[in-house]
Design a protein that fits this description.
AB_hydrolase_1; AB_hydrolase_fold; signal; Rossmann fold; Alpha/beta hydrolase; globular; alpha/beta; 333 residues; hydrolase activity
């Protein structure tokens, strides 16, 4: 009886701690006052004249199947939002590596940095090399999909399989969106707060239908806007907007040879800088049903899983529908 009461009390305490952890509050520049779901390690990097640290989680399964999955986050997120995915994968025997890219989450926010997808892919490869992992499935969501595609092009022998979940970069944004200087992206980011972040996510990710479960991810980004170091965070965010806009990968994906799974939420119409395009071009940008089909045609060894009535974040909006095809693909010989 006492054991049962202890378990219940511990469960309630955990819920209370998690609720506090996910509430809107001042979050420091490297999220040192925000607890991730798994222990965090750091890879030291000496890049472009700065000594940086790249955070990552290395989640071990209870009964290992000898395979590894790397989960790459999107632009407005960090590795924490892969918690449920990582738990499911480790229960299935997979070791899971979850990096925070430089400029994101618990990783360093450089004062001056020239971002490139090649650099982000190389940093990710260094984590795998440090852990003596020679082969893995690389899974990328949103901007993480652009990193994953670049990784597959640069390190094909390391990529056992590739998974792209509503990836950015399946179209060349600069063909329809006027060029924006980094300083303009920066000024826009400085105006961010919980209300603007929620409005963007509501309209871009969830088709105007907000659930309480989404609030934690809005709070995680909005908490930074309350911190004195937010201008540094906003600057790095502006640089990554420029990265996405100026370094399209769509022209090269036909060279990807790895077995590839495209999980595409069919309601998604996300596009970086879409509001800056003409009214006519806004109608055609971010058309994921068509973009998914195009990518499926270009990547020869690929399969497409369209998820009806799902937006930009399948693993957040409807986890069961996301994880089933993912595990099926991973378990294929």
């Amino acid at each position: 009886m006492r054991t049962s009461l202890f378990v219940i009390a511990f469960f309630l305490f955990t819920l209370h701690v998690n609720a506090q952890n996910d509430s809107l509050r001042n979050l420091d520049i490297n999220l040192e006052n925000y607890q991730y779901p798994f222990p965090v390690k750091f890879l030291p990097l000496d890049l472009q004249g700065e000594k940086l640290k790249m955070a990552y989680m290395d989640v071990q399964p209870e009964k290992a199947n000898g395979k590894t999955v790397v989960l790459l986050h999107g632009k407005n997120f960090n590795g924490a939002y892969w918690e449920q995915t990582a738990k499911s994968l480790t229960q299935s025997g997979y070791r899971v590596i979850i990096p925070d890219q430089i400029g994101f989450g618990k990783s360093s926010k450089p004062a001056h940095f020239q971002y490139s997808f090649q650099q982000l892919a190389t940093n990710t490869k260094k984590i795998l090399d440090t852990l003596s992992i020679s082969s893995a499935t690389i899974l990328g969501h949103s901007m993480g999909g652009m990193v994953a595609m670049r990784f597959a092009l640069m390190f094909p022998r390391t990529v056992e399989k590739l998974v792209l979940v509503n990836p950015l970069g399946l179209e060349d944004y600069k063909l329809k969106i006027p060029y924006q200087p980094v300083d303009k992206w920066y000024q826009t980011e400085l105006k961010s707060n919980f209300e603007t972040i929620k409005k963007y996510q509501l309209n871009s990710y969830y088709d105007g239908k907000w659930k309480d479960a989404y609030t934690r991810w809005a709070n995680l980004y909005a908490g930074w806007t309350l911190n004195k170091d937010y201008p540094r965070i906003a600057w790095n965010s502006a640089l990554t907007y420029d990265l996405i806009m100026t370094q399209p990968v769509i022209y090269e994906i036909q060279a990807i040879k790895s077995p590839t799974l495209l999980i595409i939420g069919q309601r998604d119409r996300s596009s970086v800088g879409k509001n800056l395009a003409s009214t006519e071009d806004q109608k055609t940008l971010g058309n994921y049903p068509e973009l998914g089909k195009k990518a499926n045609t270009l990547i020869k060894n690929s399969q497409l899983i369209p998820l009806d009535n799902i937006g930009h974040l399948p693993h957040i909006e409807d986890f069961d529908r996301f994880i089933k095809p993912l595990l099926s693909f991973l378990n294929e010989d």
